[in-house]
Design brief:
This protein has 201 residues and is an alpha+beta fold. It folds into three domains: 4-62, OB fold (Dihydrolipoamide Acetyltransferase, E2P); 66-127, 5' to 3' exonuclease, C-terminal subdomain (DNA polymerase, domain 1); 149-200, no CATH class. Helix content is 43%, strand content 19%. The protein is built from eight helices and five strands, in the order βββββαααααααα. It has helices at 65-74, 82-89, 94-103, 106-109, 117-127, 149-164, 169-181, 187-200, and strands at residues 4-12, 16-21, 24-29, 43-53, 56-62. Strands 1-2-3-5-4 form a five-stranded mixed beta barrel. Helix 6 (149-164) runs antiparallel to helix 7. The longest helix is centred in the C-terminal third of the chain and has 16 residues, at 149-164. Belongs to the RuvA family. Residues 150-201 are annotated as: Domain III. InterPro entries: DNA_helicase_Holl-junc_RuvA_I, Hlx-hairpin-Hlx_DNA-bd_motif, NA-bd_OB-fold, RuvA, RuvA_2-like, RuvA_C, RuvA_C_sf. It is found in: Cytoplasm. It comes from Oceanobacillus kapialis.
Length: 201
């Protein structure tokens, strides 16, 4: 099992990054590759999960051990594969997901792509009580999540609006970390903020 990869970040692609380790390029699939933008062409350490199945071997990369741990727990849930787990991790911080599971907030969980009500209930059934004692988060807030379902929907609406204006998936994903960090989650304000960021690229 490959626990982590340390090398030079040479490429950032739409759904993966490539890290050069002494002349060997490792492709690591990530929830949001563009969170590593500031480390491009620099030495970086990426936590990894080596996924093996009959017809493929893939490496998944994570910015910290909490994200990797949650990924391994999510793919253990019936109905969630690696792609679905990355979709969840790319939508909100680890603490927000853990909080939603503890609250049994299936509406919040179904806001993620590919997660229906049945799968959301399965996530809660399988993982409730198994995250807060292991994740290195100071205190999971079981009343209010880090990002609400409304926040996630506003960000998604802003992303769709940008694509309608002609921006590519790559360009939109590149500004997602800044959008998620924006204090206001009003869709119109998010679009204005996004356009401002895109003009600077």
């Amino acid at each position: 099992m490959i626990a982590y990869v340390k090398g030079i970040l040479t490429y950032i692609l739409d759904d993966s990054i490539i890290v050069d380790v002494q002349g060997i390029g490792y492709e690591l699939y990530c929830a949001n590759p563009f969170v590593f933008q500031s480390s491009l062409h620099k030495k970086i350490k990426i936590f990894t999960y080596h996924y093996v199945r009959e017809d493929a071997q893939m490496l998944y990369g994570f910015k910290n051990e909490d994200e990797k741990f949650l990924f391994t727990k999510l793919i253990s849930v019936s109905g969630i594969g690696p792609k679905g787990a990355l979709g969840i991790l790319g939508g909100v911080e680890v603490s927000g997901i853990a909080a939603a599971i503890e609250r049994e907030d299936d509406k919040f969980l179904t806001s993620f792509p590919g997660v229906g009500k049945k799968t959301a209930r399965q996530i809660i059934l399988d993982l409730k009580g198994k995250l807060t004692n292991v994740l290195s988060i100071s205190d999971v807030d079981t009343e209010v999540p880090t990002a609400t379902q409304a926040d996630a929907e506003s960000i998604q609406e802003a992303a769709e609006a940008l694509k309608a204006l002609g921006y590519t998936d790559r360009e939109v994903k590149g500004i997602m970390p800044e959008l998620k960090a924006t204090e206001s989650k009003n869709t119109d304000e998010l679009i204005r903020k996004a356009l401002s960021l895109l003009m600077k690229k």
